[in-house]
Amino acid sequence: MRGRAFHGPSRAPTVAVMDVPNLPDNPQDDIEAYVGLAQQDAEEQARARGWTTVRSLPPGAIITMEYLAGRLNFEVKDGEVHRTWQG
After folding, report:
1. Most exposed of 32, 49, 73, 80 (fewest Cβ within 10 Å)?
2. Is the pTM of this model over 0.90?
């Protein structure tokens, strides 16, 4: 018989051995300070402070929950920011 013997499927690497990418840091910002601001003002201020993606959503919106470094999320009701979170 030639070649390597088959020993079964290889296993997927565990977290302990996987390379973790170097994710960019989020801007140093007090995200709670956006609560109460008008949507447009909050979005402009967030971009000026270094957030690469600013997402404004209505309350209860169905969204994907993947983490994206540099993204700031706003929950907006009646044109005003009511909640903020990163990623």
Report:
1. 32
2. no
Alpha carbon distance 69, 66 (integer Å): 10
13/17 Cα distance (integer angstroms) = 6
Residue 47, both tokens: 């971009």
Is the distance from CB of 27 to CB of 42 less than 8 angstroms? no
Outline where DSSP puts E strands in 38-79. 53-57, 71-77
52-82 confidence digits (pLDDT tens): 999 999 999 999 888 889 999 999 999 999 9
Q: Where are the domains of the chain?
A: 37-86
Q: What is the pLDDT of residue 66?
A: 87
